[in-house]
Amino acid sequence: MSNYQSDIQAFENLCKEQGSPWHAISPEYAARMKLQNRFKTGLDIARYTAKIMRADMEAYDQDSSQYTQSLGCWHGFIGQQKMLAVKKHHGTTSKRYLYLSGWMVAALRSEFGPLPDQSMHEKTSVASLIEELYTFLRQADARELGDLFRQLDEAKAAGKDTRDIEDKIDNYETHVVPIIADIDAGFGNEEATYLLAKKMIEAGACCIQIENQVSDAKQCGHQDGKVTVPHEDFLAKINAVRYAFLELGVEDGVIVARTDSLGAGLTQKIPVTQAPGDLASQYNAFLETSPVNSVDDVNDGDLVIKQNGKLAKPVRLPNGLFRFKEGSGEDRVVLDCITSLQNGADLLWIETEKPHVQQIGNMVSRIREVIPNAKLVYNNSPSFNWTLNFRQQVFDAWAEAGKDVSAYNREELMAAKYDDTELAQEADEKVRTFQADASREAGIFHHLITLPTYHTAALSTDNLAKGYFGDEAMLAYVKGVQRREIREGLACVKHQAMAGSNLGDDHKEYFSGEQALKAAGEDNTMNQFDAAS
Prior knowledge:
Blueprint: H1 3-18, H2 27-36, H3 42-62, E1 68-72, H4 76-90, E2 96-100, H5 102-108, H6 124-157, H7 163-170, E3 179-182, H8 190-203, E4 207-211, E5 227-228, H9 231-247, E6 254-259, E7 266-267, H10 279-284, E8 289-291, E9 305-307, E10 310-314, E11 322-323, H11 329-342, E12 347-350, H12 357-368, E13 376-379, H13 386-400, H14 422-432, H15 434-441, E14 444-449, H16 452-468, H17 474-487, H18 495-498, H19 501-512
């Protein structure tokens, strides 16, 4: 007996127990609604997706070609359409996640209007977006299962064998996948971090990414002015997130510890050393200092510390922040990563200024000397000029190898005149293989693009507006949007069905029987797309 038939039988027995008051309840309809709502709560989702992510991490440890990917989504509909596309084109959602970008929450979801990525938006927006994303993914499941149920009914009515359709129902692959969710720097102290983490997990997050910047001075990882916190402060927030997972019964929840130290030259706080060589001492060793030989070297309000048996004065800026030594970024990154993994983090995120496999790999190699299975989540950021970066990398490699580069100007390689050159083609191939190369050579388990759908929304809207308000007029939409939807098989061309009208009709029939007033019928204009090809 199939799982579907087992559920029908269970509801049939329940209805018999209840007797005549339940005479209008169809066991088969109840079984369908149960299957269409597999995940009853966000915690059900978090527990389910955490197991997926842990299994994927183990698979990557065995074979680095088994890396995972995601795209950042700023709305539930965008996330839904992404996963529909993944299943349509690749046949499975395996190893494909969603990323929730704090940048896009700030820029697109704040009641204040568009904001920079500086933790100024409402922190509740983050958990709300997680819940919204999963609502749309669950609706995608319900919609596709509804289509299978209709096929089942048609097959039964025609007297056909239904075993193949029931097998598809029993083995249906959900659109619900792990979300890596950005909690920024925790939106406050460790208690604030814990409270927000709980909301995010209750909404469905199995993986939370947190960064080592000062919460109230947080900057986008690709902007200047970043300020880091001492390790003790950051580890307290990692503990807070872990406690939130444990409290809610998501024991295998995943924590991504992000370090911005490569581009952060400042700290707000000098931690207190408890013993020689402890974390505070190691952090303070990176401070830029000047020697103190006498009281004359100290001005009013200056702070003096003892290092290696000598007095030193940390360099402090007019805003009270302290400066790190020039060139210490990579060493600080390595210490950050090792410390985070030794104190409860599961994955690392190293924010870099360019996508360079060797640069990332060098840091990961040093980390793996201490933590052999260390692995990264990496931001394939739109803040990088990928075309220019990789063309310059190829240019430099050619020049070092003695190849003639006289036909190219390194500083102008972004120019369209180079698009069809051998150098550009080699650079594009390196971009294409970047994720596989970096996963093999630099320990990257998960590749994400933080805000791609911000850019795709802008680009597609620009293309439509250019034509629609110009000479193409309505043809701009018909040719550039609707005809492409039809030709490329986008289910969204039937937007009423995508928004849930067929699901609503099914429920009306379940609840009201023949009295149901349905939206689907001869006069529904969506029928015009039934023969579309």
